[in-house]
Amino acid sequence: MKGMIAGLPVVWSADCLRHDPAGEVWLGVWEPGTEVRQRASVLLDALTAAGAAVTDARPHGDAPLLAVHDAELVEHLATVWSRWEASGYPASYGRTRVVPYVFPTPGMLAGLPPRSPTAVHARAGRFCYDTMTLIGPGSWEAIKAAADAALTAAGLVASGAPVAYALCRPPGHHAGPAGYGGSCYLNNAAIAAQALRDAGAGRVAIVDIDAHHGNGTQAIFYQRPDVYYGSVHVDPGAGWFPHYAGFADERGAGDGTGANRNMPLAQGTGDAGWLAALEVICADVAERGCDAVVVSLGVDAAAADPESPLEISADGYRRAGELIGALGPVVAVQEGGYNLLSLGTLVVAALAGLAAGVQ
Predict the structure, then answer these.
(1) 127 in a domain, yes or no?
(2) What is the DSSP string of 260-296?
(3) Is position 60 annotated as part of the catalytic site?
(4) Cβ neighbours of residue 279 under 8 Å, at least 6 residues apart?
(5) Is 3 within a domain?
């Protein structure tokens, strides 16, 4: 793979390794998770072998986070572990990770105003919408480092680089304005897109090729005309996460009407159908005349991935990169991808396509 992406900027922070969810609670049972630290190590090794130029993420303050997320969510993520630990859950109860257990849904509140509960174990469910997305010691440092990587890559592109890649871990596209889930905490792609806007890009597009719909990204920009969101993903109506969002009739609202497009696909769709759907999104971006593109680079649609409902090949990812790169300049932000044996090859293929497309 040496030289396939020679010189391509890869932004990385070793702090991304500090997050260790230690598993997940799925269908009420604790089991090993797939969003493990080795994902980042495997990617870093593959990118280095392919000739990428690895650079450190630059620290940023909270202002870029607050541009797309509610302040209470950011404060919760930054402090919940210390509160959990101070309340004795690890030492007294053996609860070594923050896991929500009660959720203030409309079915529970029945019209009552939402409140902020005193108990930390109750407060967790105010922000986290599933039981899979756990927090432990070091999680906040990794969450913040992933956002810093995305911001640093956006800064490189805003300064003239045709393409830059942020090796973000944990991923982000399921995190919305005021909530997190799906192994995502802060929305790295949304943070990068807003940073590009703030740096002078009049219109920005986010193209999401992760296997699952980025419900959080959609929610952040759903009523905005300046940031287009397009996603190609497995059909949530067929039983796939995030289940409640990602349908074709979700086209934006208010001033953002028409600036959102979902292309849900049937399980088993391969390269041809997947790329045809991506071409629809790329045509939207070209028609809108976007000044910069953020790609949510999930590779969990690959045939070998344990999360894969689709059958996308390395050649498919390379071609996807070429299509998106032609719209450039591009900030690529890492999302899903969980097969440690194929992960590096797939990401390198996608980035090689991006590099070829922007030329």
Answers:
(1) no
(2) EEEEEE-TT-BHHHHHHHHHHHHHHHHHHT-SEEEEE
(3) no
(4) 323
(5) no
The runs of H, that is alpha helices, within 7-159 are: 38-49, 63-66, 71-86, 89-93, 106-109, 120-127, 139-158
For residue 226, the SS3 value is coil
Cα–Cα distance, 329 to 160 (Å, whole number):
8
Which DSSP state fits 159?
Answer: T
Query: Which two three-digit tokens encode residue 168?
Result: 């973000």
Here the CATH number for the domain that contains residue 301 is 3.40.800.20
Could you list the mean pLDDT of each consecutive 10-residue stretch along the chain, which spans 359 residues?
Answer: 82 98 93 95 97 97 98 98 97 95 95 92 95 97 98 98 98 98 98 98 98 98 98 97 98 98 96 98 97 98 86 97 96 97 97 94
Buried b (16+ CB within 10 A) or exposed e, 53-67: eeeebeebeeebbee
**Tokens at 141, concatenated:** 């440092």
Residue 198 lies in a domain: yes
The domain total for the chain is 1
Residues of the domain holding 202 = 9-22+35-59+146-358
Residue pair 46/343 in contact (Cβ under 8 Å)? The answer is: yes
- Rounded CA-CA distance 203/226 in Å is 5
Kindly name the residue from 19, 76, 173, 174 that is annotated as catalytic.
174
Cα–Cα–Cα angle for 14, 134, 244, nearest 5°? 115
Distances in Å between the Cα of 318 and the Cα atoms of 97, 214, 268, 343 are 38, 21, 19, 13
Distance CA 129, CA 201 (A): 33
Q: Has residue 108 been placed in a domain?
A: no
3-class DSSP state for residue 227?
strand
- β-pair partners for 197: none
